[in-house]
Amino acid sequence: MLSLEKQFTISHTIDLSSVTQERKCTEEEMHYSIPWCMVYYNSNNDFAFGVSCLYTGSKNWEIDTKLKFKLKFSERTTQTKYEKTFGSTVTSLGWRRSVDMEDLKTFSAENGKFTIQAKVVIKKMSGFGKEMMKSFDEHSQKHWDVILNVDGQKFHLLKAYLASQSSYFDILLFGSFKEASQEEVELKEVDHEDFQSFLELIHGESSVDKMSRLEKKFTLSHTIDLSNVTSAPKSTAVKTHFSIPWCLVYYKSNNHFTFGISCLYTESEKWGIDTKLEFRINSSDYITRLECERTFGNTATCWVWLRCVELEDLKNFYAENEKLMIEAHLTVKKMSGFEKEKLKSFDESSQNHWDVIISVDSHKFYLVKAFLAFQSTYFDKLLFGSFKETSQTEVELKEVDRDDFQSFLELIHGEPAVDDTNIDGVLHLADMFDAPTAIRRCEEFLLLLSKWSLDEKIQLAERYHLKDLKINLQQVPKEDQKKELEDVVPKPAEQSPEATWFSWIRTVPVLFYLNCFLFVSILFFAIIISLC
């Protein structure tokens, strides 16, 4: 699986005549909230260049890096790489005496120019505060209407959006409390860094430190009285998980205990749920379990563990007072034939403080103008600029897919809304609406979770001009690329021994007649030569 490495490249074209013993710096660039530049100079008639970290925000800090330096000329490229650590005492690292100045003149003789390049891969950063993924200061929030003061830190926010995400803020800012009329509200006993992360999360950022696959999984359990177990199947209470009804079933089969799980979905004709199942029988001293993979569907709604334990053994080793616990742990791998489940509703009843209706393919989404503007420069200009839509209560968006727009809204409202079925459509809208948070979340999905092929991901990165994503994808180790090809290209079928034997038998007569022909030909020519 790919990792989200922090990496960037700095390059600069140099005129040979400008290289002197005085160190020169390229224009400063910001990467991961840290300022960087390149330096170059003449060092005892050798060309030297490197990377300089201009960070001065704290006393003790370190950045462990992998560095790759390149000198590019019209007909050749020279390069080197190593691992180094920047820090408060070592702010510049480079390639000293990379090329003799005379050779430099020869290589760049065509126009006297050449390019220096440094690729920096950040392995670890220490001594820095947690990098803010989104700022909530006065300058970054154009349309704020409340300030929340947390431990002296001021967050400029939108009342209506906070209320849509939290019933606490809905009551606090729109209820009968004094805070409803205050421009600045203080929150006590709240850590300002945790609150920053909370705000980033509800504003669509993947702010949790270790992003993981959000698997759909659940457990059904039930305590059984063995005296009630008969050959007639019994069902437990129906439980709904991921909008699908489930229950456990159990019964006696030839003096053995049998139990399983049943899917009670009946809404469509063709549907399928690929699962990983783990059945368990638990007691204070013993656990018996079975793991398997099964597919539920309209023709296979129930899977059971047949004759898992003899009833006498259950009574002797598992049951206490003739009672025992059965469990089924189910992980959903794939669902097909279902309408995509909405993670968040944007209808009138669920949005108390909406101020604009966005109509997409006749479907109405009730939204907050200022939040849309905060997430997207397109909506900022459309809803707060000089267009006629600024004064309209309802705005129609044409040539936009309704389902993709639903997923886009869920994504910027903090939900894990992208998957392999909608990533292309959501990324298209994120690019069209110029929504950086949505684009970043799509990039993370493609790097960490998507099962699209590497080639498909690179094509997507090129289509939407995602330079950083393309660079990350091109760093995939060759062994991973080979594994991906092995998964796609079918292995040659192996012949059975019978097929191999039959093939050999078929070949024997051919070889026999060929050898006879060669023998007769040689004998014929030998006789002719002897007669001559």
From TrEMBL:
Pfam families: BTB, MATH. It comes from the Eukaryota. PROSITE patterns: BTB (PS50097). CDD domains: BTB_POZ, MATH. The chain crosses the membrane at residues 510-531. Keywords: Membrane, Transmembrane, Transmembrane helix. The keyword Transmembrane helix applies. The keyword Transmembrane applies. SUPFAM superfamilies: POZ domain, TRAF domain-like. Residues 144-203, 354-413 form the BTB domain. This is BTB domain-containing protein. It comes from Caenorhabditis brenneri.
